[in-house]
Specification:
This protein has helices at 17-28, 40-51, 67-81, 104-132, 152-172, 204-208, 219-229; strands at residues 8-11, 32-37, 57-61, 86-89, 135-139, 178-184, 240-243. The chain is α/β, with parallel strands linked by helices.
């Protein structure tokens, strides 16, 4: 399939995991991809992997929680490729702690990256996406739909992303822009490492949230992003799609 011929996609959080898989998937379908992350070497490697498919690809370092860097990354993408058709907000961080022990600094950092960063990237990209008749795919989580223990800030941030995306879908739908959100769960990424779970917690709470199916790789999510961002998703707007192997079913 070549669903993204002559299209340009900007992917945040592209150094690894779902972001990297998304850049490779869209590039393999013909997109020119602009990859951003705070990890300079890793995001440049992602751009190289995307370019190996025959696509045009570039990268830049960007902390999405910084308004100036968010605007600069969008501007650099448009300057490099001349337009912007798809924005995939994948950048995110997870801090797990017992809620009564969670430092407010950690709470603020998680919300700054996951929620405010998504807002800042969307705000900077909107004029270009509206001009191109493009679309946005944001990354929420199953933690926005059901309780995730020891992840108060993460769940709150991802719930905010879900509500924000629905707002975009309604506000800009009549102007030709679509906005959707994916809620992954049980995906093999750095965030799913058991090392993140605090010591001395009730592991029954963890098992309660385990999937009916096996964990899957980040390419599973990337394939859904590609569908939503392509013409195949032309009548999907304001939707949240779980990619979780029936964890919440």
């Amino acid at each position: 399939m070549r669903r993204f011929e002559d299209k340009v996609a900007l992917i945040t959080g592209a150094a690894a995991g779902i972001g990297r898989a998304t850049a490779q998937r869209l590039a393999s379908e013909g997109a020119s991809v602009f990859c951003t992350d705070v990890q300079a070497e890793a995001v440049a490697e992602t751009a190289g992997l995307a370019a190996s498919t025959g696509a045009q690809a570039d990268s830049s370092v960007c902390d999405v929680s910084d308004p100036e860097q968010a605007r600069a990354s969008v501007a650099a993408c448009v300057e490099r490729f001349g337009r912007l058709d798809v924005l995939c907000n994948v950048a995110g961080i997870l801090r797990m702690a017992k809620t009564e022990e969670l430092a407010v600094e950690e709470w603020n950092k998680v919300l700054a990256v996951n929620l405010t960063g998504t807002f800042l990237m969307c705000q900077a990209a909107l004029p270009h996406l509206l001009e191109a008749g493009g679309n946005i795919v944001n990354m929420s989580s199953t933690s926005a739909l059901a309780g995730m223990p020891w992840a108060a800030a993460y769940g709150a941030s991802k719930g905010g992303v879900l509500a924000f995306t629905r707002t975009l879908a309604i506000e800009y739908g009549k102007r030709g822009l679509r906005a959707n959100v994916i809620c992954p769960g049980s995906i093999e990424t750095a965030m799913s490492s058991p090392d993140a779970i605090p010591e001395g917690v009730d592991m029954k709470l963890v098992h309660r949230a385990m999937p009916l199916d096996a964990f899957r790789g980040p390419e599973t999510v990337a394939s859904v992003i590609a569908m939503l961002a392509s013409a195949d998703g032309a009548h999907i707007n304001g939707e949240d799609i779980r990619v979780d192997g029936a964890t919440l079913s």
